[in-house]
Q: What sequence folds into this?
């Protein structure tokens, strides 16, 4: 009987030491409606963040986001990331905008070069030596990250692994690819704020912020979807000898359509850019009412770039707009706030009367 009792006691202790079956069951689904390149699955003791490869849609990396007290419950076979992350490096200004929106900038201890940043809190942190600024991710050393006690580096994945990623992993520093820039829907870009919410313990703030953005964006879109007159719009400028404009299935083309515009190259297939010669664009733009993203701060500046711009219809009417007067602010906050970009485009297209432009400015003579 004594032996049997010892066996039963050992069995009981083993059972108690094992995570319950419930801990391996999804406790609460995290809705991701627009973004195509990440998923979040919430379990009782941890959350699984899956990063999906944009080209194939397959899982590229998985991370178990787990609190310190629950580490024993984290599944094997995937990287463990202790949350909330206290010290993070973010290598795109878009990441700064998302963290700012959920009041989580205090965790930023490494960032992209300050010359590309608009946020004063981050700039001041770099100037004070509290945040390390990285000019180039290929030049980042493990010693810099360890010296600043950074546990995760969020970078814009370009189909390749992060430099020294395996060595960093051995030192408990994880690299996380952010593919918000590959999203085709404006709300898909903004939805990546949920990733930053779960990383920083601000998931409720992130969900609430996105819900507000989604509601405002769709309300404006619905109001403009039956616009009777849609002005024809030209986008882009010459880079070298070629004109690059958004293809018809791209992020910007979607925004223009939702804003009540008739985008010049809306019928060109593709989610990236389409390439044209100056001669082709000059012929195509004859009936355009508006030119945006011209890549200049004034009309004289445009003429310095190319004298033939002075013959463009929108130029002669003075209907040229761009965000270049404050490019850092646009790139930092635009992805997080597509409803602001949509509002700007609707005002510029004449679909909304009055109101203030958030990012854009009309180029002056």
A:
């Amino acid at each position: 009987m004594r032996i049997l009792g010892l066996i039963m006691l050992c069995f009981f202790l083993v059972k108690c030491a094992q995570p319950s079956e419930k801990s391996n069951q999804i406790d609460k689904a995290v809705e991701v409606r627009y973004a195509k390149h990440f998923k979040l699955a919430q379990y009782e003791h941890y959350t699984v963040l899956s990063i999906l490869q944009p080209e194939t849609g397959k899982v590229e990396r998985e991370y178990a986001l787990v609190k310190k007290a629950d580490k024993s419950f984290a599944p094997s076979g995937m990287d463990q990331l202790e949350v909330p992350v206290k010290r993070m490096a973010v290598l795109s200004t878009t990441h700064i905008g998302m963290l700012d929106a959920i009041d989580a900038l205090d965790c930023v201890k490494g960032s992209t070069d300050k010359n590309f940043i608009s946020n004063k809190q981050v700039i001041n942190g770099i100037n004070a030596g509290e945040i390390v600024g990285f000019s180039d991710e290929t030049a980042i050393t493990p010693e810099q990250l360890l010296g600043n006690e950074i546990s995760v580096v969020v970078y814009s994945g370009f189909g390749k692994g992060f430099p020294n990623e395996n060595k960093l992993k051995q030192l408990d520093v994880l690299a996380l690819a952010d593919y918000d820039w590959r999203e085709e829907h404006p709300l898909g870009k903004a939805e990546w704020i949920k990733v930053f919410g779960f990383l920083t313990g601000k998931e409720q703030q992130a969900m609430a912020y996105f819900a507000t953005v989604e509601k405002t964006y769709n309300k404006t879109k619905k109001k403009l979807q039956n616009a009777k007159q849609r002005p024809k719009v030209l986008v882009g400028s010459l880079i070298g000898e070629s004109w690059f404009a958004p293809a018809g299935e791209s992020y910007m083309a979607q925004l223009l359509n939702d804003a009540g515009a008739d985008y010049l190259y809306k019928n060109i297939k593709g989610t990236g850019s389409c390439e044209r010669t100056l001669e082709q664009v000059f012929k195509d733009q004859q009936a355009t009412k508006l030119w945006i993203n011209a890549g200049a701060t004034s009309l004289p500046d445009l003429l310095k770039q190319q004298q033939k711009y002075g013959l463009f219809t929108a130029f002669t009417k003075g209907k040229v707009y761009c965000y270049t007067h404050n490019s850092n602010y646009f790139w930092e906050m635009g992805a997080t706030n597509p409803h602001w970009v949509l509002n700007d485009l609707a005002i510029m297209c004449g679909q909304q009367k009055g109101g203030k432009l958030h990012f854009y400015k009309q180029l002056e003579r």
